[in-house]
Design a protein that fits this description.
This protein is of the alpha+beta class and 139 residues long. It has five helices and seven strands, in the order H-H-E-H-E-H-E-E-E-H-E-E. The longest helix is centred in the N-terminal third of the chain and has 9 residues.
Length: 139
């Protein structure tokens, strides 16, 4: 944190010590669930909690996650269902109507955040479980 930022916080009566610094740094580029995936699309909105640990000791410019190339995903459909597995992991479903009988590809929340050409859509719930839609972005 820069000295100007520290002084600005002190002038507002805020303490520089954060809960985050007590529990360990988290990275807003490493969401752990749907809610934090939405939040992380604009890291200025990201709150502490719900993200994986920082792997670069706060040095974002040198972080392999920050430097990673965007992820590509190709589908014939303009909408793809992402289901939440039993452990909360996201699975991209080939045929949503087939439930868990459909071929599925496991992704990470971190990779979904880096996906290009798609936007994160609404939550979805049916007899097979919960998830959300990925919507192809207009070209």
């Amino acid at each position: 944190m820069s000295h100007e930022t520290q002084r600005s916080l002190e002038n507002r009566g805020w303490n520089r010590l954060t809960v985050g610094s007590l529990a360990g740094d988290e990275c807003a580029l490493r969401p752990l669930d749907y809610t934090h995936l939405i939040e992380a699309q604009n890291t200025l909105r990201a709150r502490y909690g719900g993200y994986g640990p920082c792997i670069a000791a706060g040095e974002c410019e040198t972080c392999s996650i920050f430097q990673a190339e965007p992820k590509e995903f190709h589908s014939l459909d303009d909408r793809v269902l992402v289901r939440f597995g039993r452990d909360g992991s996201p699975y991209l479903m080939n045929r949503a109507e087939d439930g868990w009988g459909s071929p599925a590809e496991r992704w990470t929340w971190q990779d979904l955040l880096r996906i290009t050409g798609w936007t994160v859509g609404r939550r979805h719930s049916d007899e097979h479980g919960d998830g959300f839609w990925l919507i192809r972005a207009a070209s």
